[in-house]
């Protein structure tokens, strides 16, 4: 019987006690909250690193392009470029003149047969571009990144005059930087690129915050990077 009582007491000591104190009156280990906090920190680190490198990969080439063209735009007056101007003259076939003599609504594109003929006559494709119609002339402006062009057609005689100005590769990339006459595709690329840059910078800032306690110079450098453009904008821009 004594042996049985001893077993019962041992069993009660092991299985009883306050469940909130971890069994036999033992308080929970202080390491448990630390482990939970460490797991949460590791989770957010993984998430931030993932989004940081994905946004970096998406915006890498665009960021390089915009950084370089930022320098070329800032020194545009120092970069010499001789525009290349090509002027051409031709005459539409008689069969197509009647197409132009017929009235057209304001800003309507040049009719397809005339546009196809212009490609061969002056080397410019006006298809899909709005034209300016008046009683004597049809005028089509063809601006683009790094270049300007136009075509004028006499509605009575069919005489075609065109001019194309090419300002070179530096001007081409500068216009891409500004989104000048670059089309809808480039318009949406700039928006996607800008969103990727925002994600890249925000995740970078949060990663700085998570690692800041091990890198004492983090916030002084962030403050310096904020103060420099602010001081220049407030005191040196007139």
Oligomer: single chain
Main sheet specs = 5 strands, antiparallel
Please list the strands of the largest sheet in the order they lie side by side.
Answer: 1-5-4-3-2
> Which segments are poorly predicted (pLDDT under 50) over 5 or more consecutive residues?
6-17
Distance between the first and last residues' Cα: 100 Å
The general outline is: elongated
The strand count comes to: 5
Radius of gyration: 35 Å
User: What is the residue-averaged pLDDT?
Assistant: 86
Proportion in β-strands: 5-15%
Q: What class, by secondary structure content? A: alpha+beta
- The number of helical segments is 7
Helix and strand pattern: HHEHHEEEEHHH
- Fraction of residues in H or I helices: 55-70%
Describe the overall structure.
There is one protein chain. The chain has 238 residues and is α+β, with helices and mostly antiparallel strands. It is built from seven helices and five strands. A hairpin with a 3-residue loop joins strand 2 and strand 3. Helix 2 packs across helix 6. The longest helix has 44 residues. It is elongated. The termini are far apart.
Task: Spell out the blueprint of helices and strands.
Layout: H1 2-15, H2 31-74, E1 84-91, H3 94-101, H4 112-122, E2 131-133, E3 137-141, E4 147-154, E5 159-166, H5 169-178, H6 183-211, H7 218-235
Antiparallel strand pairs: 1-5, 2-3, 3-4, 4-5
């Amino acid at each position: 019987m004594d042996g049985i009582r001893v077993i019962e007491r041992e069993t009660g000591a092991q299985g009883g006690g306050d469940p909130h104190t971890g069994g036999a009156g033992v308080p929970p280990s202080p390491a448990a909250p630390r482990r939970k906090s460490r797991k949460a920190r590791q989770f957010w680190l993984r998430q931030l690193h993932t989004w940081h490198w994905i946004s970096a990969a998406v915006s890498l080439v665009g960021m390089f392009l915009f950084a370089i063209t930022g320098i070329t735009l800032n020194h545009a007056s120092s970069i010499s470029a001789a525009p290349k101007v090509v002027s051409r003259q031709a005459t539409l076939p008689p069969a197509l003149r009647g197409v132009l003599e017929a009235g057209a609504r304001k800003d309507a594109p040049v009719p397809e047969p005339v546009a196809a003929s212009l490609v061969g006559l002056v080397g410019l494709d006006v298809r899909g571009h709005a034209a300016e119609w008046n009683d004597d002339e049809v005028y089509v402006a063809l601006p683009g990144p790094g270049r300007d062009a136009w075509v004028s057609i006499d509605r009575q005689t069919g005489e075609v005059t065109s001019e194309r100005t090419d300002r070179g590769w530096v001007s081409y990339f500068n216009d891409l930087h500004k989104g000048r006459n670059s089309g809808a595709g480039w318009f949406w690329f700039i928006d996607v690129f800008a969103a990727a840059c925002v994600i890249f910078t925000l995740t970078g800032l949060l990663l700085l915050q998570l690692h800041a306690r091990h890198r004492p110079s983090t916030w002084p450098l962030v403050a310096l990077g904020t103060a420099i453009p602010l001081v220049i904008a407030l005191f040196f821009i007139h």
